[in-house]
Amino acid sequence: MATLSRLSGRNFLVIGRAGMDLYADPPGTRTEDATRFTTALGGSSANIAVGLVKQGCQAALLTCISDDAVGRFCRAELTRYGVDHTHVRAVPGEVRNSLAVVETRLENCQSVIYRNNAADFAMTAEDVDPVDYAAFSALITTGTVLAAEPSRSATFHAFTRARTAGLPLIFDVDYRPYSWASAQEAAEVYSKAAALCDVIIGNDVEFGFMAGDPEKGLAKARSLITQGAQIVIYKMGEKGAITLTPDGEFTTGIYPTAALKPTGAGDSFLAALTAALATGQPLHTAVLRGSAAAAMVVARVGCAPAMPTTVELDDFLTQHPGPTTG
Predict the structure, then answer these.
(1) Domains in the chain and their CATH numbers?
(2) Helix, strand, coil shares of the chain as percentages rounded to 5?
């Protein structure tokens, strides 16, 4: 496994989708009642890249987008946020970019995601081969990129290239059932990917799913440490998170907040956690910064636009009474 000290370079390669989010407006409006929508950059990997940039890091996205107005919207938004899109390829033809119709509502929040013939699944080995992996500090990806071919094989190929260059691999499970042919296939592929990675992040449902038994999720997380992972974070929603390392485990709480919606928390958590580790902060502190960033995002409209800056996150931590007891 790679050394996590490499993260100090603060320049990250993120693999996975960028999409357009359409939010029913004003906040609180149900989609079926909406007469207008606002747009925002979305897609888990794009959100993470934006979150990293806002936390003072550099980030490059590796993916495919549609060669149409929606794809061009995504590229323009990446530019606006300062995310390097050198390795984002526009795919001609009938593939379509990821599109989400979302509500800013906490109760009964509807998120309708269109992923038919998705452009990001068109990523191939020819897209990942030209990347100068040695220029980066780590490779980050989420589980959605593994849901279909040729993207799945391309991602595993990128893992090999990154590992050869000495990069740590950071993996957010991010299970989306609608993207997969079957739950069994997803569990097998996720387990294969997680076994290759240095840092694995998921929630209790996702680890239970990977284990094939909801009651065995924590055991699955612990098994990844015995297989060579350096950090595994087992998130439990309002109950906080258990962080596992070869040296032991610790539990952390959450930062209660006036949430507007449930989306974007995981992406913000990963970005703030990674940025904190990159600046040499202790793992316990990094996990709490990730938890605080997640709390901030669910209290804001949008996902990419809601990612906090370092100054905003520091202010939040200064003013908040502190996390719940884990």
Answers:
(1) 4-18+44-89+120-319 (3.40.1190.20)
(2) 45, 20, 35
